[in-house]
Amino acid sequence: MKRFLVLILIITSCQKVDDEMTEANDRKNIAEISKAMNWFQANVIKNQVSNDPQVKSNGIYSEWDPVWEDAITDENSYYKVVEVPLKFLKQRVFLMKECENKYLSSNDTRYLYNNQKLVIQTNKRTGEMYGFFMSFVPSLKYIESNTNENNYLDKKDFDGYLLFTNFSGDLINGWKYKDGKIANKLKPILKKNTANTKSSEYYVCQTTYDIYYIVWRNNKNNDISIQITGIEESTVCFELMDALENNDGGGGSGGEPGYVNEIYTVSVNQNGGGIVDGSGNYLVNSTVTITATPSSGFVFGGWIDNTYPTKEFICHSKAYSFQIKDNRSFIAFFYSDTSACAKLAKVINDDSLSNYISRLRSKMKYSNSVEYGDLRRIDGSLYPKNGQEHSSSFVLENGVKYTESHHTHPSGCNVPSGKDIIALKKLYMKGAMYNVNDFKYGIITDSSGACIIQIENESLFSNYIQKNMVDEDSYNDNYLAYIINGEEGGDGTKGVIFRILNKLEGSGLKIISSTMFNNNDDKRIEQWNELTLDNNQLYYKNCINL
Amino acid sequence: MKRLIFVLSLILVSSGIQSQGYTANLDFFVGTWKYINEATNEEFTLKLRKSAYINPLDKYQDEKACLVGAYIYILNGDIITDTMNEFGSDKYALKMPIMATNFVRNISKLDSQKLRLTFNDRKYNKNTLSSSLEIVSTSPAKIRWTLTEDEGEEVYSPGETIKPNGFSVPVNMVLTKVSE
After folding, report:
1. Which residues contact A127 (CB under 8 A, 6 or more apart)?
2. pLDDT (tens digit, 0 to 9) for every residue of chain A, 546 residues total?
3. Nearest CB to A491; choose among B94, B109, B111
4. Which of A233, A405, A505, B72 is the most buried (most CB within 10 A)?
């Protein structure tokens, strides 16, 4: 039963047919637009007739053309998108009830507004292309407050319905937005009686809420003729679904290909030794927090972003938050508490290290031979006076214990000197280390990275210094003569490191180093290596195998 | 002259071969060297002789050719440091006031013009190995003396005397040979 309420209004208007696009050049990828145009011409038969009797009877989308010169481009990790405004001789306009009422009481054609676009997207991985129509059906609030700048990949603060149709005009799916966020997924229901059997809480097909308006626009003089169709005949019902629910034909990540992907999946995995949380489906632009909790006996090393094609360290915080715009995959790294990597993670994850590096580097001037350094007391304060020249030379305070000590090597030599080993010995012998196993002794250069010496085995270290440092001056002389000054003959950093490790074999000391000199990178665990010798070979042992 | 230096270097390289290493031009450095700066009223005298040492850290434990020596530094007529009484000492080379060598095990790494210098500052009670003696010219015989402080943290116990920064002698000067 069709009861069309037909109202023909001839309105002379200066209003533009569609949004005027004033996009920046970076939104105009000519090659992509050209590709989309070719695809469109080869694959889309305009003015198709829908199989949907309702649509067919109204001749929806029967007369339209893409305005290619106003096309814009966009992309995310998965899709390249070309968005093309449309010019119509006849346009189907979806209205929310509140907009219909406002229009009827005011005759203001602003309330008959839908921003409708042709969208052609290319799957970046497969190269496959799809096309569809997109209609922004705004709420009253949105019409009265917004400039309609939303586009396919960035919905900003849109409020209303976003509907997708195929080229025959068949409604495929849609989304209900509230203040820029998705409130519901919309699943079209063509049989009205189905809708009536459900609570209105779950449906938007309230008999008069959605009305078809058919608008004839004259592109030459912008005259608009509006035909408002009857309610019963034009009602399109949508089932209001949980926005994160996957369903057949509902669009989203699990829906029909070619339609908007508003749900993204977060996959959180681990290498063993803890619990991770955060996997699941999320609405685009929502804030996602993933968390890692190490089990007893394990230490958390950091998060790896494993999202194709990325694979990189991103964060050492147990909780990591981000705004989701694509499917994402993460791996949490846990290490056995007694492993070398666990100790490394503890060192790197401590903010005081990066603070030290940043602060001491700021004191360094290129070619300046002055060394800077200090000790950190248990209460966190620094000794001697912060920034004092030659502060890497100091007198221990009576009865005071320290948690770490760092100093600069202005020459850029990123390895411990004989004096460093002697200093470590003195700190140990004088009982100045608060916790021997966790004490950090750092060497920082301006552009050659940094290294940290740790006492990994106190018993071995104690034996080593008693055997090798009876005569401290001789140790320093011989150490330098053998290692730094290169009796082996200037064989570069690797040779120096090799000799250091040879010399320190059995010392109970561990050296970890970072060759990076960017302060942020110093906090990235994959930039740090434990230096080891095995069977006379030098190894840079990394704790994250990317 | 350059050819002469080259030939001389080859002869010295050949004669300087140790059991597992090489040196060059050590004989050129042997003798007495002097730096005089009338403007600052400074006089520095360096005396070098040939010797050998065994580095206890080296796994080969073989003798390496080197130079050892002593120095005297006079400023404004005052003797600042005088170690000449140690010149004939038979103490371990690295414990001498001066030790210098270009010993390497890989001949391709041999620098025949530059010696690594170990300087023991008797006045400041500190040493450096990050220093060098380098040939400036062979006729007249001149060498450049460059001292650089070794890097590393220095930790003192309460009450322990702190070593001054820098050195008690000039850190950069050109010395002229005054006698063999």
Report:
1. none
2. 333 322 222 222 222 323 333 344 567 889 999 999 999 888 876 555 444 444 444 444 445 678 888 899 988 767 788 999 877 655 667 777 788 788 779 877 777 777 788 889 888 778 888 888 888 888 888 888 866 565 555 666 788 888 887 776 667 777 788 887 777 777 666 544 443 333 334 444 432 223 344 555 555 555 655 555 433 334 455 555 555 554 333 333 333 333 445 677 899 999 888 999 999 878 777 889 999 999 999 988 888 888 877 777 787 789 999 988 778 999 998 888 877 677 777 777 676 777 777 777 777 665 466 788 888 899 988 888 655 666 678 889 999 999 988 888 887 777 888 888 888 998 999 999 999 988 889 888 877 788 888 898 899 999 988 876 546 666 666 676 666 555 554 556 666 777 778 778 888 988 888 876 555 556 667 778 888 877 777 777 777 764
3. B109
4. A405
Q: Which two tokens stand for residue B83?
A: 């170690």
Measured CA to CA, the distance from residue A59 to residue B22 in angstroms comes to 96
> Angle at CA A253, nearest 5°, toward A249 and A257?
55
Domain boundaries, chain A: 45-241, 263-336, 340-541
Quote the distance between the C-alpha of residue A376 and its chain's center.
Answer: 36
By C-alpha distance, the chain A residue nearest B125 is A473
Residue A539 C-beta-side C-alpha neighbours within 13 Å: 11
Q: What are the tokens at A144? A: 């009265």
Nearest CA in chain A to B131: A485
Kindly report the nearest CA distance between residue A505 and chain B, in angstroms: 12
ipTM for the complex shown = 0.75
- In whole angstroms, give the CA distance from residue A517 to residue A519: 6
* Residue A419 to residues A10, A180, A183, A350, Cα–Cα distance (Å): 93, 62, 65, 26
- Other CB atoms closer than 10 Å to residue A249's CB: what's the count? 12
Q: How many CB atoms lie within 10 A of CB A443?
A: 28
Asked if A259 and A132 count as a contact pair (C-beta separation under 8 A), the reply is yes
Interface test with A, best of B66, B103, B155, B172 (most A CBs within 10 A): B155
**In this complex, do B154 and A393 lie within 8 Å of one another by their Cβ atoms?**
yes
Q: Which residues of B touch A369 (CB under 8 A)?
A: 148-149
* CB within 8 Å: B155 and A473: no
Single-letter code of the amino acid located at A363: K
Contact A137, A94 (CB under 8 A): yes
Q: Do B153 and A395 touch (CB under 8 A)?
A: no
Residues 346-405 of A with CB under 8 A from B: 369, 371, 373, 390, 392-398, 405
Contacts of A355 (CB under 8 A, 6+ apart): none
Calculate helix-pair angle for A340-349, A351-363, nearest 10 degrees. Answer: 60
Interface size between A and B, measured as CB pairs under 8 A: 129
Amino acid letter, residue B165: N
CA separation (Å) from A323 to A73, A176, A409? 22, 20, 41
Helix/strand/coil (H/E/C) assignment for every residue in A88-139:
EEEEEEEECHHHHHHHHHHCCHHHHCCEEEEEEEEECCCCCEEEEEEEEEEC
Residue B30 near residue B67, CB atoms below 8 Å: yes
| Residue reference for tokens 């996959």 | A267
